[in-house]
Amino acid sequence: MSEEFGPDFITVTDEDGNEDEFEHIDTVEVDGTMYMAFIPAELAVDEEAEVVILKVEEEDGEEVLVSVDNDEEADRVFQIVMERVEDMYEEDGE
Q1: Global pTM?
Q2: What's the rounded Cα separation, in Å, for the pair 39 and 51?
Q3: Spatial contact of 54 and 66, defined as CB atoms under 8 Å apart
């Protein structure tokens, strides 16, 4: 993901109507399905990030983000995202 134009933020509304803002950190395709990874926007520098994985699905001709209910699927995507993020930081450090 290019940081040329700065980070991307979204607001997610949960099933109870609570809104949280997240920063997009990566998008990956796994087995033909697109996933997007986010961290909380208000994350302090010294805090460990909680990564939120959302699946991109098409609904009524529009792309929507939905939660990943299968733990195995979420863990698999999480591992791929973390490897990619680590690789990005290693490249930046060289």
Answers
A1: 0.77
A2: 5
A3: yes
